[in-house]
Amino acid sequence: MTDEFDLVVRGGDVIDGTGRPRFAADVGIKEGQVAALTVPGAITGKATLDARGLVVAPGFVDIHSHADWLLPLDDHGEILAPMLRQGVTSLVVGNCGHSLAPVTEDSTRLADVSSEILRDRAFPYAWRSTAEMLDAIEARGVAFNVAFLAGHGTIRQSVMGNAPRAPAPDELDALRRATRDALREGAFGLSAGLAYKPGVFAPSDELASLCNVVAEEGAIFTVHGRAYVWISPFYKPMLLGAPHNVRSVDELVTAAKRGGARLQLSHQIFIGRRTWRTYPTVLRRIEEAVASGVDVAFDAFPYTVGNTTINAILPAWVLDHFEERIRDPKVLARLRREFAMFRLALGLDWSDITVTWGGGKASLEPLEGLDIAAIARRLGVSPFDAYVHVSRESSGAARVLIGTYSGDDTDEEPLRAVLSHRLCAFETDAILTRRGRFHNPASFGTFPRVLGRYSRDLGLFSLEEAVRRMTSFPAERVGLPGVGRLAPGHAADLVLFDPLRVGEGGPNAPPVGIDKVVLGGHVVVDRGAMRLDRPRGRVLRRR
């Protein structure tokens, strides 16, 4: 046959995303889909990519990222280029309870506050419902395949603002209706962020009720738990009973079980050196839940630092009326005592918290890139006062990197245990904007680091298993149609990489060993060079 295909990827070793061993094959692509997998040399195309010496894998699926407030922007492909360069072709957004929709005229103001660290610039909401949002983004075009989750916090704000209480019966009915509408309009699941306002105020009964809606609609519940530390402000009694991160997993598993929902535990981490010892118990609890019939899995990134808002470690009683309380001397005196206790109990130092963006405040720009201990020295105040200064001056919007996430430079035992687990999907938790001069390394190197350091170099799992857990596994968890596998009828989203060289680059630098990235049959990355002549992705909708 002559030029039967639009593109042929020739001479590579195919790892198809299912976990089965690699095999030599040519890939025929036609009209944006994989049309054939054949013995080498059997087909021809209008164009050919030479994949000799390379692995040909499905495009990577990032099950947990925060690109929502970038995707409607015309230049989102440029801002998110580090994601494409590392092989990500599909994004799951709307995580940690924050999503672009549904919103009301009043709740957009609250959504703006909640999304401050995720936004690149001022953001107009040209929609109200999830369906209107999906249509608007689809009309503009996207540089990735994108699947949206409905944010529990966003829905809660649209129904009851940031009220620090359980919903009244009529409000719970409204939360259930809004959740059902979002899922029926194309959202793939409901996400919750139980350490962030307003999700922090949601009781377990509310979560279980919403899980029931999620289950009835055949969707998934993804959740940022209340605690990733062994002791926190969220559970009482504080020092007796199970560690708080264990209680958090138990609470979420129970809510999912009561509601019958599939559960995805977001970014399974262990924060603070004294929390690391709890990892066997947490993983065992998850395995026991699976054995009892709960459909639960989790995801993680391959770094011992993670990005969040500076207010993520504040207790709920401070977040309620934050602007007043962060200036109240009595509140600060109590908070100072609690911080001293928690830092000592957790094994978390002030030097483990680095400010990457000062919330757009000119006075905080000189502090970007410094940890809290260094900021304290520069300002001539205590580290606690330095932390409060950054939180207060940025109105809680400052972005930070926190260390001791499941390990540090000298000890990665908890991290390696998590990444090795068969129920772990790989993700970035990335927040990428033009704001600030420093970014989460996961935004640049997550998937190459897994393939290089943890699979090839350390041998924690095979290359085929690594690819499975960054392609078909997350796609199946969320229910994404036509992505995550290299098979006829699936989207022609491919990553060509050198298995001997693949790995992360330096800080905020492109990875190495990623030769090409193909999206919808078009080359969008060629040895690090971007080809963004037009958006090549698709807005995915739950069927």
Low-confidence stretches: none
Please provide the count of β strands. 21
Structural class: alpha/beta
Main β-sheet, in a few words? 9 strands, mixed
Shape: globular
Helical amount: 25-40%
Give the C-alpha Rg.
Answer: 23 Å
Average pLDDT works out at 95
Assess the beta-strand content as a share of residues: 15-25%
What is the terminal-to-terminal distance?
36 Å
Number of helices: 18
Structure description:
The structure is a single chain. The chain is α/β, with parallel strands linked by helices. It is 33% helix and 19% strand. It has 18 helices and 21 strands. It has helices spanning 76-79, 81-85, 107-114, 130-140, 152-160, 169-184, 204-216, 244-259, 279-291, 316-319, 322-325, 329-346, 372-379, 383-393, 413-420, 442-457, 463-468, 472-478; strands spanning 5-14, 23-30, 33-38, 45-50, 55-58, 60-62, 88-93, 145-148, 150-151, 189-193, 220-224, 262-265, 296-300, 306-309, 353-357, 399-402, 424-426, 494-497, 514-519, 522-526, 529-530. β11 (220-224), α8 and β12 form a beta-alpha-beta unit. The longest helix has 18 residues, at 329-346. It is globular. The two termini are 36 Å apart. The mean pLDDT is 95. InterPro entries: Amidohydro_3, D-aminoacylase_insert_dom_sf, Metal-dep_hydrolase_composite, Metal_Hydrolase, Metallo-dep_Hydrolases_sf. It holds the Pfam family Amidohydro_3. This is Amidohydrolase family protein. Residues 48-525 form the Amidohydrolase domain.
Identify the notable features of this structure and list them briefly.
alpha/beta; 6-stranded parallel β-sheet; 18 helices; 19% strand; Metallo-dep_Hydrolases_sf; D-aminoacylase_insert_dom_sf; Amidohydro_3; Amidohydrolase family protein
